[in-house]
Write a structure and sequence with these properties.
By secondary structure, the protein is mostly helical. It has helices spanning about 65-75, 80-95, 100-110, 115-125, 130-145, 145-155, 165-175, 180-190, 200-215, 215-230, 235-250, 250-265, 270-285, 285-300, 305-320, 320-335, 340-350, 355-365, 375-385, 390-400, 410-420, 425-435, 445-454, and strands at about 5-10, 15. It folds into 3 domains: about 1-125, no CATH class; about 130-235; about 365-454, Alpha Horseshoe (Serine Threonine Protein Phosphatase 5, Tetratricopeptide repeat).
Amino acid sequence: MYPLIPRSLSSRSHRFIVSNIRPSLILQFHTSESKNATKPLPPISFSDHQTPKTPNPRHVEPIVNQTTILETLACYDNDWKRAMEFFNWVKSEHGFKHTTETYNHMIDILGKFFEFDLALQLLDEMPERSHTTFRVMFKRYASAHLVQEALDTYNKLGEFNLKDETSFLNLVDALCEYKHVIEAEELCLGKDNIANFKMGTKVYNMILRGWFKMRWWGKCREFWEQMDKDGISKDLYSYAIYMDVQSKSGKPWKAVKLYKEMKKKGIKLDVVAYNTVIQAIGVSEGVDVAVHLGREMLELGCEPNVVTYNIIIKLLCENLRVKEAYKVLDKMSKRRCAPNVITYHCIFRCLEKPNEILALLDRMIDSGVCPTLDTYVMLIRKFGRWGFLRPVFIVWKKMEDHGLSPNEFAYNALIDALVEKDMIDMARKYDEEMLAKGLSAKLRPELVKGECDD
């Protein structure tokens, strides 16, 4: 199914068409002004695009369904106004009855930009809400550090018959994910416990993971010991998290020790736990030992996944064994384990020649792996540091061709590269375009001085 592609065909007729492009390409605007890379796109109202009354043999009616709408909204993750316009447009012009899934996606985009009043309006008009709906709300409130609002939302879930253990766990998980672990621990284990069920291993694992994300290594150790004091049985996931703690805190040998402890206890490792150990043993004892453990894992019937290969490739690249990393990349497809974005990121980071990087980017796209905004930002920054503007614009154009709406990191990386080359006028245009979208621009003395001179 193809996403909806709005395209301005002429000044006299504007209409939506479905373009025969790969499903991986997402919604993008094609305007006569888009040919000028330095000129910001004008605001476009979906209501202005009307199907012409005169029959046109080339006209193709758009396919409007949940799949295409979700794909289209995905491109506007960094442009909530256009996302909202599109969301309303398919409803008013095509009579599409939004589903719980499309509402959830739109609410997620609004929450990302702190447009909680609009998000709550959509929540009120939804025909049906699910646990996923409120998980999105918890996540966005927690990411905005609005803990009380998240708690208030949970307390109101009785109105929707969703105030249950699943919702509570979603709330705790969101708080821990966005570094509000102190509040999460107080909710679960403190005097203000608002749950009506017993806290078990799952909740403790969430909190342990929360301390891990905060990188409070001492607190992780205390909580690990507290699990024993509270009589909480440690499972595979508990060990996997704590092995990761030891590895990331600079003690990979202790992670390996935990791995041996698990084997003694007869806990069967899954691929996630093996990946953590392979990473730890690769850092502490070298990439060759890590590869050997990967073979052992395979012999024990645990199939490696893309993360396993990514760890090996990263270790090889960090040891400047790039040719071997490429060989592992070739093996992945043969073993029916397709590379993902992170696989290519591992190799991009160690390459030092623009032509090699661009060739790998083409290979990535040709293989069906779609670069993310993080991919493009990483490459723009890399080329910008080296002072190569031509590859910067090649990468920027590929990003636009794939319909990705630049975020603040992409704009700032491009503007930094332009300022570094003293291309102040062009940098200012992108700065203005960025501000017009409501994205946060860096304060750059060069651009401020230029405005004063004008």
